[in-house]
Predict the 3D structure of the following.
Amino acid sequence: MKNNTKTTIFLIALVVIVIGIIFSIKGGDEKVSPNDALAQHITDTGTIFYGAYWCPVCQQQKALFGRSTRLLPYIECSKPNKQGQTQVCIDAEIESYPTWEFPDGERISGSLSIDFLSERTGFTGELINSSPAVTSEVPAPNLDNPENVEEMIIEITTE
């Protein structure tokens, strides 16, 4: 009788622990990140963020948003192994990364500050990680010579 009671208590405790772990993992996905409102606003305006997975400037741009990056209207332009552009980026005539395209058709290439994106898209909420305007860009790979991707120069300027 004692073994059954101990086994039952152990199983109940184990189930409670497993349920607690599951809820804590699921709860983590639902947490709001500081720039969620801005990232969602940028998406809602119809703005598009074109980039490439291998582009260090694109990674810097995403880093400004932290976990809120998942809400940005990001379009991947690079094919696997850096072998040229995806068709959507060819059709959009994307020439450098990152490129932001706004609903009025204006395009700006380079990493844009949180403040600039907020102002440009008309966001009126609270800003996190605001910074001076930073522009830098990486040229899109030459489709005639995709091997030269590694040799591209990254140009960085600050205003």
